[in-house]
Amino acid sequence: MQYTGECRVSSRTVYHIVLADDHVPFRKGLKDVLKEESDLVVVGEAGDGRELISLLRQAKPHMVILDLSMPHMDGFDAASEIRKCYPDISTLILTLHKDAAYVQRAISAGVSGYVLKEKVDTELLEAIRSIREGGVFFPSHLTPEASVRDEP
């Protein structure tokens, strides 16, 4: 085969993500999952909401994936702060909380998606791709009305 000087490059641009979860082993595992995707790059990690907000100015991610239950500033407050201060950054909640009230509260905080940690293998990448393309991702099995949210 003769070399033609052409390189095949993915048409997808790199999408920068910051992870926020107070459980380091979970963050590490999540980072390993995301490494498998050539167009997704983890550009920062935080162990709590305050650390996350401090990190955003320098990391400049497209998306934050965050847990709801974190010390110092929970995921709801962090998501609200991100929406207010960094409206171009999308937020995806990744949590253990299955209660529909949590989903509704997350929507009120301005998040773009909500995935249960138990569904990470089947829903995480779908959620990221949907949000990346301008959509939202909410589990219809928790709250059917959550599949659409009011825009700001």
List keywords for this structure.
disordered C terminus, 5 helices, 152 residues, Rossmann fold
Description:
This protein has 152 residues and is of the alpha/beta class. It has one domain: Rossmann fold, CATH 3.40.50.2300. It is 37% helix and 18% strand. The protein is built from 5 helices and 5 strands. The protein starts with 14 loop residues before the first strand and ends in a 20-residue tail after the last helix.
CATH class: Alpha Beta
What is the typical, i.e. mean, pLDDT?
88
Instruction: Write down the domain tally.
Output: 1
Kindly estimate the percentage of residues that lie in beta strands according to DSSP.
15-25%
**What is the radius of gyration?**
16 Å
CATH superfamily: Response regulator
State the separation between the terminal residues, measured CA to CA.
Answer: 55 Å
Q: Which sequence of SSEs, written as H and E, runs from N to C? A: EHEHEHEHEH
The count of DSSP E runs of length 2 or more, i.e. the number of strands, is 5
The number of helical elements comes to 5
Named at the architecture level, the CATH assignment is 3-Layer(aba) Sandwich
Main β-sheet, spatial strand arrangement: 2-1-3-4-5
How does the helix and strand content classify structurally? alpha/beta
At the fold tier of CATH, the topology name is Rossmann fold
User: What would the principal axes of the Cα set say about the shape?
Assistant: globular
Percent of residues in helices comes to 25-40%
Pick out the low-confidence regions.
Answer: 1-11, 146-152
The biggest sheet, with number of strands, parallel, antiparallel or mixed sense and barrel status, is:
5 strands, parallel
